[in-house]
Design a protein that fits this description.
Elements: H1 2-5, H2 16-22, H3 26-36, E1 44-45, H4 50-59, H5 64-80, E2 104-105, E3 108-112, E4 115-119, E5 122-126, H6 129-137, H7 139-142, H8 148-153, H9 162-168, E6 178-179, H10 184-193
Parallel strand pairs: 1-6
Antiparallel strand pairs: 2-3, 4-5
C-alpha cells in the first residue's frame, strides 16, 4: 500500500521496522506486566490455561514457546503452591507515552528496552527510541507530564502506602483487581456463559 501511495509523497512511518519485529511478542509482554502488577491495576489477570497456551503457541510459533511459555508455566507452578506471583512495586513509566517501560529490545526479547536523555540537568526515561526522539524534538511539551507512578511515590495520590493509593483511585483490592480465578468476575462470567470452571486453580 505504501508503495502505491509513494507517488503522493506518503512514506512508511519512522520505526515501522521496529513495530514489525515486536508484533509477535508485544501482547505477551503487556500481559505479563499486568499480571506482575495486578494488585495496582483496574482489572483481574490470570495465568493462561493450557488451551490458551496451545492457541498462543500456534499463533506465535517463533516466539511464544521459546520466550514466554516458560514464564507462564513457572507462574502457574507457583500459584498451585499457593505462592501467586506479583511484583509489590510499581513499574517505571515512559516520560512521553506514559506506558510502563517494560518492552524489550527490537532485536533481543530477553533485554528490556530503556532509553534516557538529560534536559536542563534532569534525566528523563523512555520505553523506545521513538518516544525518546519525540521528546527531544519538543522537550518543553513533555517535561510537564503528570506521571501517575511518580506522583504516587511523591504521596500525591492519596498518601503513602498502596492501600491509600487504591482508595484514592476507588479500587477495592480483590474485587477490582488481582487474581481472576475465584473472583466475582469469574463467577459472573461462568454464570452468564454457562461455562464450568471447576478445574481452575483457586485464588
Amino acid at each position: 500500500l505504501f508503495e502505491d501511495l509513494s507517488r503522493y509523497g506518503i512514506r512508511m512511518p519512522k520505526y515501522h521496522e521496529v513495530a514489525s519485529k515486536e508484533k509477535s511478542r508485544l501482547s505477551h509482554e503487556v500481559w505479563a506486566t499486568f499480571y506482575n502488577f495486578s494488585h495496582a491495576a483496574a482489572f483481574h489477570t490470570w495465568v493462561p490455561e493450557e488451551s490458551e497456551l496451545k492457541w498462543l503457541s500456534e499463533k506465535y510459533p517463533d516466539t511464544f514457546d521459546k520466550h514466554y511459555r516458560p514464564r507462564f508455566e513457572h507462574w502457574d507452578a507457583l500459584q498451585k503452591e499457593g505462592k501467586r506471583w506479583s511484583n509489590p512495586g510499581l513499574p517505571m513509566l515512559c516520560q512521553l507515552c506514559q506506558v510502563p517501560a517494560i518492552f524489550t529490545e527490537p532485536d533481543d526479547p530477553t533485554t528490556t528496552c530503556l532509553r534516557e536523555t538529560t534536559y536542563h540537568g534532569m534525566k528523563y526515561h523512555f520505553c523506545s527510541d521513538g518516544c525518546k526522539d519525540i521528546f527531544e524534538n519538543e522537550p518543553e511539551k513533555y517535561v510537564q507530564s503528570w506521571l501517575p507512578v511518580h506522583q504516587i511515590f511523591q504521596g500525591n495520590c492519596g498518601g503513602e502506602g498502596l492501600d491509600n493509593v487504591l482508595k484514592y483511585y476507588n479500587l477495592v483490592p480483590g474485587q477490582d483487581n488481582g487474581e481472576y480465578m475465584g473472583s466475582q468476575d469469574q463467577m459472573n462470567w461462568e454464570q452468564w456463559t454457562g461455562r464450568d470452571h471447576k478445574d481452575a486453580p483457586a485464588a
